[in-house]
Design brief:
Two copies of one chain form a homodimer. By secondary structure, the first copy, chain A, is an alpha/beta fold. Helix content of chain A is 37%, strand content 25%. Chain A has eleven helices and 14 strands. Chain A has a nine-stranded mixed β-sheet, sandwiched between helices. In chain A, strands 2, 3, 4, 7 and 8 form a five-stranded mixed β-sheet that branches. Chains A and B meet through α7, β14, α9 and α11 of A and α7, β14, α9 and α11 of B.
Chain lengths: 306, 306
C-alpha cells in the first residue's frame, strides 16, 4: 500500500483571529504525508527542502513510514516559506510573504522504486512540475491533482494540458468558478469534467465538499465545529485522507470515493483544531473512528417513512 | 392530520438575475400551505387579506385541502405587498417596498375547531402576534416558529418570551449569529437552545440546514442545482415540508425530525425552480419521491470499509 506524494515541505507563519505562530512546519506534502500514514504504510515523498529544514521533522516523518528518498536537500538555500493572515470568517486570507527559495529550482526526479506506485497525489505546484511527475510514473492507477488560483491565472494552458492526464481534480468553489466563468457550481463542474478529469471534488470549506463523476454527485458535509483554530493545510489533509483510504482499499469505484471523501473531511476536521500539523501528529486510530462515527450520525437519516 | 398555519397571504414583486415579476401571489402561509398539503389533508390557515386577494387563489387553496375559515378578508384595505431584488449570489436581497396594508391590523382569532390541533406552524410575524396564537391553542404537540432579523432587532424582548413557548425555532445562519453575538454556528446554536426552543434548525441556503437538539446535530444538504431561479419562499416551503411530514407521521422524535428536514430541503429545491409558488402547484407525489431519492444518493455512503 504505497502512495507517491509530491508537494512542498516548508515553513509557515500563520496569523488567525485566535493567535499567531512563528515559523512552523508546513507545506502540502507534509500535511498529506502525516494524514496518509494513518491509512498506508509507505508514503513516498517527493519534495525539496533547504539546509534549514529540521532533522527532527525528517526523523519523525520516517518513523511514521514516510520514505524520504525523493526529498532533495539543497545545502546552500533556505526552505520555502509562506506567511499568511486569516480573516475573521476563516474562509479567506491574505498572503503576507511568499519566499520560494529552494522551490524555484524544484525539478522532481523520482527514485526508481517510486515509479511503479499506483496512487499519486500531486500537491499544489506549477502544472509543468506536476506533469513531469506524471511522465515518470509507469503504472498509475489513480492520479489526484490539487491546484490553485495562481496557476489558473498564470499558467492556464499548462494546467489545461495536465488536466487531461489525471483522474481526480481537487479545487475549491471559487477556483471552479474561475476555471469556467460559471457561477453555478453544478454548471462549473460539468464544464471541468469535460476538460479531462474523470472525477472532480469541489471543496467548500466549512460548507463541505462535492464529488462529481459523469452524472453522479455526492455531498460530504464538514463537521460543524465550535472553533476553527487554523485552516492552514485542511485541503491537503482532506486530500491525504481521501487518497489514503483509496490506496488502502485499492478500490477506485465511485462508491468507495464517497467513503474516501467522508474520511478526508474527518481528517480535515482534526487539522483545523490546532496550528499547523500539531493535531495530526496527536490523533490515534480511536480518534479517527470516533470522528467517522460523528459523520455517520451527522448525515444518517431514514427516508423509509415517507 | 391537521396543521395550523399562521402567516401572511400577500402579493410579491420579485426581481432576480433571471427575470422579474409583476405582483404575484406570495406570503409565508401560502408557501407553507401549498407544501404541507402534499403531506396532510387538513391545513388550517390563519391569515388576513384585503379586497384585492384573488378569489381563484382562495378556491385553489380550498381544493387542495386548505381550510380558510381562519382567514380574515378586510373589505376596504389592500393585501400585504412586498417587493425585493436578489443579488447575483441569490443569498442576499434588497427589500424595495413593504406595504403592510391589512397586516397592520392582524390580530389572529382562531376558529374553535383550529384550537384542538396539535401541530402549529408560526410563520414570520411580530412575536406578540405569534404569542397570541400560542395562547389560543389548547393541546399543542409541536409548535414551530420562524422569525427574522427585523424582530431580533426591534422586538427582542418579545421574541425572547415567545422562544420559551415553542418547540422548534427556524432561523438562518446570520439570524443565529445576530441573536447570540457568536460567529461560530455551533456556539450560537448552544446559546439559542438555552433560550427556550427544544430544537433549533439553522438554514444556510444553498449550503443546507443543521438541526440541533441537546448535544445532537444533524445536517441536511441542499440539492446542488444548476440554477436557482427565485429563492423567495424557499424557507417557508422548507418549513411546510418539515411540519407536514411530522404531522403526517405524528412522530416528533429527533430521528423523525432528520427525515422531516430532508423532506423540507427536497420541497425547497422545487420552490426555487420557478417564480413564486408556481412550481409547488405543479409537482406530483412521483416528483417528490424522485427528488427524495436524489437526496438519498447525494449523502448516502458506506463507512463499513474503514
Amino acid at each position: 500500500m504505497s502512495i507517491v506524494v509530491v508537494g512542498t515541505m516548508a515553513f509557515d507563519a500563520i496569523e488567525t483571529p485566535f493567535g499567531k505562530t512563528d515559523k512552523i512546519i508546513g507545506g502540502s506534502a507534509i500535511y498529506v504525508a502525516y494524514t496518509a500514514t494513518n491509512f498506508v504504510n509507505d508514503v513516498q515523498q517527493v519534495s525539496i527542502v533547504g539546509y534549514d529544514f529540521p532533522k527532527e521533522e525528517m526523523d519523525e516523518l520516517k518513523s511514521k513510514g514516510v520514505d524520504l528518498s525523493g526529498v532533495v536537500v539543497v545545502p546552500d538555500k533556505k526552505s520555502f516559506f509562506w506567511s499568511g493572515k486569516y480573516h475573521l470568517d476563516m474562509n479567506t486570507r491574505d498572503t503576507l510573504v511568499t519566499d520560494l527559495n529552494v522551490l524555484a529550482d524544484f525539478d522532481p526526479v523520482l527514485p526508481e522504486h517510486f515509479r511503479e506506485t499506483e496512487f499519486v497525489m500531486l500537491g499544489n505546484l506549477a502544472p509543468t512540475i506536476q506533469m513531469r511527475v506524471i511522465q515518470q510514473m509507469k503504472n498509475p492507477k489513480l492520479i489526484v491533482l490539487d491546484t490553485m488560483n495562481f496557476w489558473i491565472e498564470n499558467t492556464w494552458s499548462d494546467l489545461q494540458q495536465v488536466l487531461t492526464m489525471i483522474d481526480v481534480l481537487l479545487v475549491n468553489d471559487s477556483e471552479a468558478r474561475q476555471m469556467t466563468g460559471e457561477f453555478s457550481i453544478v454548471k462549473a463542474a460539468r464544464k471541468i469534467l469535460k476538460m479531462g478529469p474523470k472525477y472532480l471534488i469541489i471543496k467548500k470549506g466549512e460548507h463541505g465538499a462535492l464529488l462529481f463523476h459523469e452524472n453522479n454527485v455526492f455531498f460530504a458535509p464538514a463537521l460543524p465545529l465550535e472553533d476553527v483554530f487554523d485552516p492552514t493545510g485542511a485541503g491537503d489533509t482532506f486530500a491525504g485522507g481521501f487518497i489514503g483510504h483509496l490506496a488502502k482499499t485499492k478500490d477506485i469505484s465511485f462508491e468507495n470515493m464517497k467513503t474516501a471523501i467522508i474520511i478526508g473531511s474527518a481528517m480535515a476536521s482534526f487539522c483545523v483544531e490546532k496550528f499547523g500539523v500539531q493535531r495530526l501528529k496527536e490523533i490515534t486510530k480511536a480518534d479517527i473512528d470516533a470522528r467517522l462515527e460523528e459523520f455517520v450520525q451527522l448525515v444518517n437519516f431514514d427516508i423509509a417513512l415517507v
